[in-house]
Design brief:
Blueprint lengths: L16 H6 L5 E2 L33 H8 L2 H14 L2 H6 L19 E4 L2 E3 L25 H4 L13 E2 L6 H4 L40 H4 L3 H12 L7 H5 L17 E2 L2 H13 L5 H11 L3 H32 L15 H6 L2 H16 L8 H7 L5 H9 L1 H11 L22 E2 L2 H7 L4 H7 L5 H12 L43 H4 L3 H20 L1
Parallel strand pairs: 1-6, 4-5
Antiparallel strand pairs: 2-3
Helix pairs in contact: 2-10, 2-15, 2-17, 11-12, 19-20, 20-22
This protein binds a DNA duplex through strand 4, strand 5, helix 12, helix 20 and helix 21.
Length: about 550
DNA sequence: TTGTGTTTTACGACCTCC
DNA sequence: GGAGGTCGTAAAACACAA
């Protein structure tokens, strides 16, 4: 399979290569990031969260306002100096740090290793942290006084002993570094590094044991022997690997298995939140966006890609579940229309009949029950901003954080805080060329019509590639969007239903490939973006 | 505290497209 | 052949009832 891949491990680390190759400079967080509060989609169903799996369903994740909260310029202002001081000069040169530079950049050694087979192309766990792991008391981490993780109740295990790889503190890079206690924590240069050689030109490579824990099978399969063993090992977990896999040389091969305790990490709420935001805006991440998110969240691009894959799978699962429930309901509908036979899953009709008033009421009840605290008078829109997947303590902590409330939360619900129209944006704050911008903002800036998008985002953007290429062979119009459901949110979205960029109805199915490949392959960017883009265009015409 | 079910990361196999 | 897609699944992390 990939036996002939003689990986030059000395050339695996580079700075963000994709950015350079794509021609689209990285956009680091921008102050205007905070300004976007348009709920990214008008897919406004509401689910009373009967189960956790429904939490993100129908995309009522409050992309905008949560951004407002968590990336609030005021909140992170304190961090600016520290962050920029600690940033390495290279990064500063490449990406002028905006005021809302996410401060994890100073340790954003998002490093992924080479892979040479399919999507095994990126290490998930970079081997070389650039700085010692920050402590949870590190004031230079997220959100300054609104320190995110300080608000997050995730316990802080002893790094030397913790076995679960929840972030020991707020720093994202800890997600990527399995073992912060390793000596290299203190011995490596402070260089944010990406480690994904599928695109990257070689810069340098740090050999040593730090790669051992994080290297995947395929990535290490640089010899037939190793490959064969790894293949064999997958079915014989207890077999003994060849010696050269254990301690052969500097590249001490040690398989990363799924059976070892170091199996997966848990993303922080902030990371998940950003990913959810991106997902709400587009079910498929483009290469530039992936690169930007990678840098911003200190996750490898592979992690982001896999997260999106898993997220789509979750969406499909939910849709299927919903469809099944709807079908069963229809069967039983003649006898008992109101029978609560959903088991917690709502039909589309349910969503349609579920008004925002109901939502607010239920949200209020839920939160009052959950918090059981002085938050009885909380502004529901604040809670809404936090999204469904923030745990109760996080919500409570944020609500009780006066700094947060004063600087971000309350602002997020005011009508004039968010400048919904791009024309209102301060151009001095928007330098898209060097500033990471949420996709929702990008959408406002760059309506992704098939023409303009493909021009503005050339080759590196897979979405646009598919727009320009696949759409040529796909004469079938995109499927009609599902019925939109009204959901009056505290900040009413202007954005059209980007959800419909991905239509599960055109999903390619392996079991029944009855349609022509060009029309059955799930290529949402190709099939859906044009319609969504035109909708965006028309929506912006309304806005302006 | 423990058992159990669910959700979240991550991977492998296999697919299509370019 | 490489990219990213889905699908199925492993296993950690988590939630919650008993």
């Amino acid at each position: 399979m990939n036996n002939n891949n003689n990986i030059n491990y000395s050339s695996l680390i580079s700075n963000d290569h994709e950015t350079g190759s794509s021609g689209e400079p990285l956009r680091i967080f921008d102050a205007s990031y905070n300004n976007y509060s348009i709920h990214p989609n008008s897919y406004s169903d509401y689910t009373p969260i009967p189960s956790k799996i429904e939490a993100f369903d129908y995309n009522y994740w409050p992309a905008t306002n949560t951004h407002n909260i968590l990336a609030n310029q005021t909140i992170v202002a304190i961090d600016q100096a520290q962050t920029q001081q600690s940033l390495n000069p290279t990064l500063e040169t490449l990406v002028p740090i905006p005021s809302v530079q996410l401060s994890q950049l100073n340790a954003s050694a998002t490093i992924s290793a080479t892979h040479h087979h399919h999507h095994i192309h990126q290490h998930l766990y970079p081997p070389t942290p650039s700085t010692p792991p920050p402590t949870c008391n590190d004031s230079s981490t997220w959100l300054g006084s609104g320190n995110y993780q300080a608000l997050h109740p995730t316990p802080t295990p002893n790094p030397s002993t913790y076995r679960h790889y929840s972030n020991p503190c707020s720093f994202y890079p800890t997600n990527n570094f399995y073992d912060p206690s390793q000596p290299q924590w203190t011995s490596q240069p402070t260089i944010p590094i990406k480690f994904e050689s599928s695109y990257s030109p070689p810069l340098y490579f740090e050999t040593g044991n730090h790669c051992q824990e994080q290297t995947s099978k395929d990535e290490l399969s640089n010899s037939p022997q190793q490959s064969n063993w790894l293949k064999h090992e997958s079915s014989h977990p207890n077999s003994v690997p060849p010696k050269n896999l254990l301690n052969g040389n500097q590249l001490t091969f040690k398989r990363k298995t799924r059976t070892r305790d170091k199996y997966r990490i848990v993303y922080t709420d902030q990371q998940r939140y950003e990913l959810e935001n991106e997902f709400n805006l587009s079910k498929y991440i483009s290469i530039p966006r992936k690169s930007a998110l990678s840098l911003t969240l200190s996750l490898s691009e592979r992690q982001i890609k896999i997260w999106f894959q898993n997220r789509r799978a979750k969406e499909r699962k939910l849709n299927k579940k919903r469809h099944d429930v709807t079908s069963s309901r229809q069967l039983n509908n003649s006898n008992d229309v109101d029978s609560p036979s959903d088991g917690g899953v709502e039909s589309p009709n349910y969503y349609q009949n579920y008004t925002s008033h109901d939502y607010l009421q239920q949200q209020q009840q839920q939160q009052q029950q959950q918090l059981k605290s002085a938050t009885a008078e909380m502004d529901l829109s604040v809670l809404w901003c936090l999204g469904p997947d923030f745990d109760k303590q996080t919500v409570s902590s944020l609500l009780n954080d006066s700094y947060c409330v004063e600087s971000g939360l309350t602002q997020s619900i005011t009508s004039n805080w968010w400048m919904s129209s791009p024309s209102k944006w301060n151009n001095s704050l928007m330098h898209e060329s060097d500033v990471y911008t949420p996709r929702s903002v990008m959408n406002e800036l760059e309506p992704q019509s098939p023409t303009s998008a493909s021009i503005k985002r050339p080759l590196s953007d897979a979405s646009n590639r598919t727009i320009s290429s696949r759409s040529l062979t796909n004469s079938k119009p995109p499927p009609p969007p599902p019925p939109k459901l009204e959901f009056l949110t505290p900040v009413r979205s202007h954005t059209p239903d980007i959800y419909n960029r991905v239509s599960s109805s055109v999903k390619r199915t392996r079991a029944a490939p009855t349609l022509a490949p060009s029309s059955t392959f799930e290529t949402p960017p190709a099939q859906a973006i044009p319609s969504a883009s035109s909708a965006i265009d028309s929506a912006e015409q309304v806005i302006f």
